[in-house]
Amino acid sequence: MKKQLVAFLVFFMVVNTIFADIPQTEKNALLDLYGATNGEEWQNKWDINAPVEQWYGVKLVNDHVVEINLFHNNLQGTIPASIGGLTSLNVLNLAFNGITGQLPETLVKLVKLKVLKLEMNRIKGELPIEMGNLAQLIEFSAFNNFLTGSIPASLGNIKGLKILNLSSNNIKGEIPNSLGNLKNLVVLGLFENSLEGSIPNELGNLSLLKELVLANNQLGGEIPKEFGQLASLEVLQIQNNKFNSFKNLEYMNTQGLLVFDFDKNKEMSDFKNIDFDKTRMAETLFEEDIEHDR
Fold first, then answer.
1. The predicted structure's pLDDT at residue 177
2. Rounded distance, CA 102 to CA 147, Å?
3. pLDDT tens, 74-127?
4. Is residue 133 packed enough to be buried (19+ CB in 10 Å), middle (13-18) or exposed (0-12)?
5. Any idea what the Cα angle at residue 191 is, between residues 185 and 195, rounded to 5°?
6. CA–CA gap between residue 68 and residue 236 (Å, rounded)
7. Does residue 70 form part of some domain?
8. HEC string of 144-201?
9. Is residue 223 part of a domain?
10. For strand 58-61 and strand 64-69, is the pairing parallel, antiparallel, or unpaired?
11. Which end of the chain is less packed: N or C, by CB atoms within 10 Å?
């Protein structure tokens, strides 16, 4: 009798493991995403009658959705507010699609998110003010969209952030001083926006920063003297702004730069004592190294 009971319990556990399903709220969020982005026209469609673990680009751990990777999959439409119900999500990659509309405020509920890739879409409107709630975020990339408004100061709360790329949008206002708190930041891309004001001195605190791309904005004033502290910097692009002095670049070790772009056509007597022999002057175009298919 005991052997039969044990056998039954084992069988019961196996069956439940095989047929276990994700919470209905998470499944509904996935179905909403499918419907809101014209899933029937995706390059790789979902068979919504199949188990969720078989859906393209969806990864489950312990019956929770931890990853959605729909990179370059012909999504056309908006991101539904119900996306905020995927509270176990670690990776959301919707890059290189045709997503429109604004980002839902519920996005900031994805507190376990580590990678958020939204680049090369048509997303408009402002970034949620409380983006800093995504405290575990390591990479946030949303370049080549139609984002407006200002950079949320709360982004400075994401201490582990390594990549922040908001280039090629319509973002205005000043660069928040709080970005100087991102001590783990390796890439900061703010190319081709309408940013104005002076570059915060606090950016000099980013000792691990390798790429700083601020070209094609309306930034002014002086280059911060604190740039001399950016010992890891390899790429610096500051051309096509409204700086009135570049003298503080003297404090930088330009020999460590692989790419250094500035306004070459302007008369800059400030540069006469700077040795650029070891630097490679790149073209004005900003080239982004994109990491696909996490």
1. 98
2. 8
3. 999 999 999 999 999 999 999 999 999 999 999 999 999 999 999 999 999 999
4. middle
5. 95
6. 33
7. yes
8. CCEEECCCCHHHHHCCCCCEEECCCCCCEECCCHHHHHCCCCCEEECCCCEEEEECCH
9. yes
10. antiparallel
11. N
* Nearest-angstrom CA–CA distance, 122 and 102: 9
Give the integer Cα–Cα distance in Å for 100 and 128.
16
Place of tokens 């899933």: 39
Is 271:249 a contact under the CB 8 Å cutoff?
Answer: yes
Structure tokens at 274: 């700077």
Q: Which one has a higher pLDDT value, 219 or 287? A: 219
pLDDT of 52-81, one tens digit each? Answer: 999 999 999 999 999 999 999 999 999 999
What is the extent of the structural domain holding 82? 24-273
Q: How many folded domains does the chain comprise?
A: 1
What is the 3-state secondary structure of 52-109? Answer: HHHCCCEEEECCEEEEEECCCCCCEECCCHHHHHCCCCCEEECCCCEECCECCHHHHH
Residue 255: which CATH number? 3.80.10.10
Query: What distance in Å separates the CA atoms of residue 153 and residue 21, rounded to the nearest whole number?
Result: 39
Residue 256 token pair: 């460590």
Token output for 186 = 């390796």
Sign of CA dihedral 186, 190, 195, 197: positive
First to last CA, the chain: 50
Assess contact for 252 and 227: CB atoms under 8 A: yes
Query: Is 4 among the domain residues?
Result: no
Q: Is residue 150 assigned to a domain?
A: yes
* Predicted TM-score of the model (pTM): 0.85
